[in-house]
Automatic annotation (TrEMBL):
Residue span of region Disordered: 228-253
Protein name in UniProt: ABC transporter ATP-binding protein
SUPFAM superfamilies reported for this sequence: P-loop containing nucleoside triphosphate hydrolases
The keyword Phosphoprotein is annotated on this UniProt entry: no
Molecular function GO labels: ATP binding; ATP hydrolysis activity; transmembrane transporter activity
Domain called ABC transporter: residue spans: 6-243
CC terms in the record's Gene Ontology section: membrane protein complex; plasma membrane
Cited InterPro entries: AAA+_ATPase (IPR003593), ABC_transporter-like_ATP-bd (IPR003439), ABC_transporter-like_CS (IPR017871), ABC_transpr_LolD-like (IPR015854), MacB-like_ATP-bd (IPR017911), P-loop_NTPase (IPR027417)
Family according to the record: Belongs to the ABC transporter superfamily. Macrolide exporter (TC 3.A.1.122) family.
Species the sequence originates in: Jiella endophytica
Organism classification: Bacteria, Pseudomonadati, Pseudomonadota, Alphaproteobacteria, Hyphomicrobiales
Keyword field contains Electron transport: no
Low complexity: compositionally biased ranges: 228-247
């Protein structure tokens, strides 16, 4: 039997208070197997990016089970959760989130240094070479193209050798050709390392490259990618709406 990398049961999340309350996730059930690639799609405001942040351990669910790599996240302290995330989950964001006053090499080394790796810079250099940026290691983010910045971000996510890679609109800020190149690299690394990949995208072509596509609308999974739609849709609450991409964790998109 395949090993389960991600397991969600009745996951619910509400943002805001009073009249501004937004029911973002409304009872999500989801299994993702080890080594599987899953694309999450849905309209803006559907809750798909919030779901991704819950999977990444960057947003806590109000209710339900979130189990990553066999470990329930609900009872963890913030420090324990950060440590667990650093060992098990790599994250690639649409907006790169590189530190502007650090070189590409230093950016990639950050999670390794935080984990206490004695050879952080050697490993970071290998990852940069692996994504084709060996000659750009000493450049700062402002000196790199968008595609190069996203490859640095990918190298940073891959450097700790996580079992699970989470990607939120990884090609969303790139032109079509650069986006295709980044996607090629993303799926090549997922296959080579046999990682579990979960990504959110508005791009049907990118989603189609995943082994399974999950459709989310108004905080509910309407199609789990196995040919079955959600049996019951909770009563509609206030519609989910974007809060913004700048803050971490991200709100519903």
């Amino acid at each position: 039997m395949a090993e389960t990398a991600i397991r969600l049961r009745d996951v619910q999340l509400t943002l805001g208070t009073g009249r501004s309350t937004v029911h973002v996730l409304k009872g999500i059930d989801l299994n993702v197997q080890r080594g599987e690639s899953v694309g999450i799609v849905g309209p803006s405001g559907s809750g798909k990016s919030t779901l991704l942040m819950v999977l990444a351990g960057l947003e806590r669910a109000d209710k339900g089970l979130v189990e990553i790599a066999g470990t329930p996240l609900g009872g963890m302290s913030e420090d324990a959760l950060a440590s667990f995330r650093g060992r098990n989950v790599g994250i690639v964001f649409q907006s790169f989130h590189l530190i502007p006053n650090m070189t590409a090499l230093e950016n990639v080394a950050v999670p390794l240094e935080l984990a206490g790796s004695a050879d952080a810079f050697e490993r970071a250099a290998r990852e940069l070479a692996n994504v084709g940026l060996k000659d750009r290691a000493s450049h700062y983010p402002g000196e790199l193209s968008g595609g190069e910045q996203q490859r640095v971000a990918m190298a940073r996510a891959l450097a700790p050798e996580p079992a699970i890679l989470i990607a939120d609109e990884p090609t969303g800020n790139l032109d079509q050709e650069t986006g295709r190149q980044v996607a090629d690299l993303l799926f090549a690394e997922q296959a080579r390392r046999q990682m579990t990949l979960v990504l959110v995208t508005h791009d049907p072509a990118l989603a189609a490259r995943c082994g399974r596509t999950i459709a989310v609308r108004t905080g509910v999974i309407h199609d789990d990618g196995h040919g079955s739609a959600a049996a019951t849709v909770p009563a509609a609450g206030p519609a989910a709406s974007p809060v913004g991409d700048a803050a971490l964790p991200q709100a519903a998109r």
